[in-house]
Specification:
The complex is a heterodimer.
Chain A (H helix, E strand, L loop, with lengths): L1 H5 L40 H12 L17 H10 L5 H25 L12 H12 L3 E8 L2 E8 L2 H18 L7 H13 L4 H15 L10
Antiparallel strand pairs in A: 1-2
Helix pairs in contact in A: 4-5, 4-7, 5-7, 6-7, 6-8
Chain B lengths: L1 H19 L8 H12 L19 H21 L9 H11 L16 H4 L24 H26 L15 E3 L2 H8 L5 H16 L7 H5 L2 E3 L13 E2 L5 E10 L2 E8 L6 E3 L2 E2 H4 L3 H14 L6 E7 L3 H16 L5 H9 L30
Parallel strand pairs in B: 6-8
Antiparallel strand pairs in B: 1-2, 3-4, 4-5, 5-8, 6-7
Helix pairs in contact in B: 1-2, 2-3, 6-8, 11-12
Classes of the chains: A mainly alpha, B alpha+beta.
InterPro entries (chain A): Ribosomal_uS7, Ribosomal_uS7_dom, Ribosomal_uS7_dom_sf
Keywords (chain A): Mitochondrion, Ribonucleoprotein, Ribosomal protein, Transit peptide
Pfam families (chain A): Ribosomal_S7 (PF00177)
């Protein structure tokens, strides 16, 4: 037993190099860096959580990545967005842009808050993280299109999208929109904060693009049965 | 063929043993015989097919005699090396043999070895048929009688469980939530282990079918009736956190507790940390303050990660030294060194929590090598049509 299991615990290179492989053996489990999970006492765990904990106690765990911490400011969605904004591995610049964007959004919202009449003050959202999440939610498409070949022709067929795909599309549209459709003198963070605030109130080009995709999917509804999976 | 080869090797070694080595203490001819004879039979280890080995080559009395000789030889070897024969372990034997018979050979199987006969001689089965030539087991002519009889037994047990369930249904005592066998923390027998158990070689397909049948048995609600049978074919997995080496806490002359995190690697960066339990929370890296050394927020967050996770942010004083790599890998190396240094201050449950958060695993990711025929690790050369 020991002889074959020690081989699973070392950093490995798989015998056949696939395109997506990692230095961890598939035996390793993902880490869970959040603090709160570990402070739940034994009695309040559900059976699934108990089973998960027991499984984790016998399996080796991967190391936490560089961008992950247990602090409250660590946001996985935001980290993903920063990585997508990054060019040539320059995370410092990408993170800087995002920080400036959030600050800018906060300033604009606080200005609006102070100018608003008493009754409307409660409706104005000042938390930039909440605005970011809500804007991203508003940009996520519900249904997507894919190209399927049937009888020599290619048709655009509506398909359901996974959560990861939806999030990716929303982020991608946001970034490309901010890179392409801006005046050459506006800085990235300025344009990004404008777009995010627009998306938060369901206006702007990104939300328009999402609606267009939905309309296309609706118009191609007849081809939905071409999908076989 | 192997026997004749062994005899020549044995005689050669016998002569070698006579001329090259002077034993200090009284060594009997028996020891040299034992050692040289054990060396001859190491070729047996190459034997692959256990069931088709034919009639047994080594009788039971022979194996017993080998075991006695091995034990006597072990005691003589202990005497020779000047150690206590009562507490002479296999590791000591290996070291003594490597000392007495230094070998420059690369092939591990060609080097001299002295192991217990149970490890040297493969497990064999006694003769499977009686004096009249008629085999004892009814599945002998399948060729894999132990394997098929095991499958037969397992299926019989599955049928028995189903019959039990039907009986309970008849009496209206059937419940879906009967006590289940706990499978967490154990794994199925590996194919090699099963072969060892059955003293028979089985194919991958056979092994897969065996696991499938066991899973089917486990899918029945009342399988806990056959729990003993199932557990015989499962092995416990060891708890991973017990493998963590925790350094004991050290105290300096002022009575302040301190602990060192040994140099940890992250992608060619190595870092060491000296954690002091003084309560100020200052961090110095290579002599400079950490704010000046790591101007990027992400790196400082990585340093704080283990402390924040355990809730001991302002408690420790740290003196770190780091070299190699870039700023990110230096931060990663320091994080691992800090986590390891902190282990001495924590309890077992907290060590396990840190391990599950991914703080104690060294990151094995390295730069992927460049391949021939490509420009980099992934980038191919520009495609030219002609």
């Amino acid at each position: 037993m020991a002889a074959s299991l020690t081989g699973l615990l070392k950093p490995w290179t798989p015998r056949v190099l696939l395109v997506r492989w990692s230095r961890y053996n598939p035996y390793y489990l993902e880490p869970g860096p959040r603090k709160e999970v570990y402070h739940i006492p034994e009695t309040e765990l559900t059976p699934e959580q108990k089973e998960e904990r027991e499984l984790k106690s016998v399996r080796p765990i991967k190391a936490a990545t560089n961008s992950v911490t247990s602090s409250v400011f660590n946001d996985p969605v935001l980290s993903k967005f920063v990585n997508m904004m990054m060019k040539d591995g320059d995370k410092i610049i990408a993170k800087g842009i995002i920080t400036q964007t959030l600050e800018n959004m906060k300033r604009k919202q606080v200005e609006k808050y102070h100018k608003a009449p008493e009754g409307k003050k409660a409706e104005i959202e000042c938390n930039p993280y909440a605005i970011f999440h809500q804007a991203l939610e508003n940009c996520k498409p519900v249904i997507g299109l894919t190209s399927i070949q049937k009888g020599g022709k290619f048709y655009q067929v509506p398909i359901p999208l996974t959560d990861n795909r939806r999030r990716f599309l929303a982020m991608k549209w946001m970034i490309t929109e901010c890179r392409d459709n801006k005046h050459r003198r506006t800085l990235m963070y300025e344009k990004l904060s404008q777009e995010l605030l627009a998306a938060f109130s369901k206006e702007g080009n990104v939300v328009k693009r999402k609606h267009e995709l939905h309309k296309m999917a609706e118009s191609n509804r007849a081809y939905a049965h071409y999908r076989w999976w | 063929m192997a026997a004749s080869g062994g005899r020549t090797v044995g005689s050669f070694l016998w002569k070698c043993g006579n001329c090259c080595f002077n034993f200090n203490t009284v060594s009997s001819n028996l020891t040299r015989q034992v050692l040289s004879r054990q060396l001859c039979v190491s070729a047996v280890l190459h034997r692959k097919n256990l069931a088709a080995a034919g009639p047994e080559k080594f009788s039971e009395e022979f194996i017993k005699k080998q075991v006695e000789e091995f034990n006597i030889g072990k005691r003589h070897l202990a005497n020779m090396m000047g150690e206590d024969p009562e507490t002479f372990t296999q590791g000591d034997i290996n070291r003594s043999i490597a000392y007495l018979f230094p070998s420059g050979l690369f092939d591990k199987k060609a080097k001299p070895l002295m192991k217990h006969p149970d490890e040297v001689f493969p497990k064999q089965r006694a003769v499977q048929w009686g004096a009249d030539g008629r085999p004892f087991h009814f599945l002998f002519y399948t060729g894999k009688q132990s394997y098929y009889s095991l499958m037969h037994d397992t299926f019989t047990k599955a049928l028995a469980v189903e019959k039990h369930q039907d009986r309970l249904r008849g009496k209206d005592l059937f419940t879906q939530d009967a006590k289940q066998i706990s499978l967490v923390g154990s794994r199925w027998l590996l194919k090699e282990e099963l072969e060892e158990l059955l003293v028979e070689t089985i194919s991958e397909h056979d092994y897969a079918r065996f696991i499938q049948l066991m899973e089917r048995l486990l899918s029945l609600p009342y399988c806990s009736v056959e729990e003993d049978f199932v557990q015989r074919y499962r092995r416990q997995l060891e708890i991973q956190s017990s493998k963590q080496q925790v350094q004991p806490l050290q105290y300096d002359q002022h009575g302040v507790a301190y602990s060192t995190g040994d140099g940890k690697q992250r992608k060619t960066a190595t870092g060491t940390v000296l954690l002091r339990d003084s309560g100020s929370g200052s961090i110095s890296i290579n002599g400079t303050n950490y704010v000046h050394y790591f101007p990027v927020l992400q790196d400082r967050e990585q340093l704080m990660f283990p402390l924040h996770f355990m809730g001991v942010l302002g408690r420790f004083d740290m003196q770190c030294s780091v070299s190699g790599g870039g700023h990110s890998s230096q931060a990663g190396a320091l994080r691992l060194a800090i986590s390891r240094a902190m282990l001495s201050f924590l309890s077992e449950g907290q060590v396990e929590t840190m391990r599950q958060a991914g703080l104690l695993t060294p990151d094995p990711r390295i730069k992927e090598r460049k391949k021939p025929g490509q420009e980099g690790a992934r980038r191919k050369f520009t495609w030219k049509k002609r």
